[in-house]
Structure formats: structure tokens, C-alpha cells
Write a structure and sequence with these properties.
This protein is mainly alpha-helical. 66% of the residues lie in helices and 0% in strands. It has 3 helices and no strands. The protein has helices spanning 19-34, 39-67, 80-111. The longest helix is centred in the C-terminal third of the chain and has 32 residues, at 80-111.
């Protein structure tokens, strides 16, 4: 029986298509450093983005499972439908663990400010 070939190493390449992505991801960091953004607020935005993107990916996985190409005869393994509960568990774990701490930090700042 032939052993499957494994990827030895992956070397990401920096090309002209990755420059806008890098700049876009540096924008919140620069906002915290120079525009007086609260790090907790930026973190909450990233956590909420995780929920939105995760929900969108669940929708895509269901659509591909029902309307996508059928698997090849030699393909085995986990189907997309079986990965949906794993994705939902991962997203819910990450958000349920991190968001309460972030919201608590933001509310403490709001309560101690002159906004109320």
C-alpha cells in the first residue's frame, strides 16, 4: 500500500495581493495606538465578526452539502455536514469565553465615565 504524500513545509509568499490585506489588518492596531480607540472595543468587533463569518460559513457548508458537486468515488473522510457542529462549537466556545470579559471591561469604563 502506498503511503500518502505529506506536505513537508509551507512557505507563505508575500505578493502584491497580500499588501491590502496586511494594511487592512493593521488599521485597528493603528487606531488603538494613534486614534485613542479602546482595545476592548476593537476586540469586541473582532469577536462579533467571528460570529458573523462563522454563521456565513455554516450557511455555505449546508449549501455545498446539498447543492455542491458529489464526492469522487475514491474520497473518504468527514463530509461538510459533519463539520458544521464542530464549527458551531468552536465559535460558541471562543465567543462565550472571550466576550464576557470584553463587555465587562467596556461597561466598567462606561460606568466610570461622564456618559451616564
Amino acid at each position: 500500500m502506498e503511503q500518502p504524500k505529506l506536505l513537508i513545509s509551507y512557505k507563505p509568499k508575500l505578493d502584491k495581493n497580500s499588501i491590502p490585506v496586511i494594511l487592512w489588518n493593521l488599521f485597528p492596531f493603528l487606531g488603538v495606538l494613534f486614534l485613542n480607540w479602546k482595545p476592548e472595543s476593537v476586540f469586541i468587533c473582532y469577536a462579533l465578526e467571528t460570529i458573523v463569518v462563522g454563521g456565513f460559513n455554516v450557511f455555505r457548508m449546508v449549501a455545498v452539502y446539498y447543492y455542491g458537486l458529489p464526492p469522487k468515488p475514491d474520497e473518504t473522510g468527514v463530509t461538510g455536514l459533519a463539520m458544521i457542529p464542530f464549527l458551531l462549537f468552536t465559535i460558541s466556545f471562543l465567543c462565550s469565553y472571550s466576550l464576557p470579559f470584553s463587555f465587562q471591561a467596556v461597561w466598567v469604563q462606561v460606568l466610570h465615565s461622564d456618559l451616564l
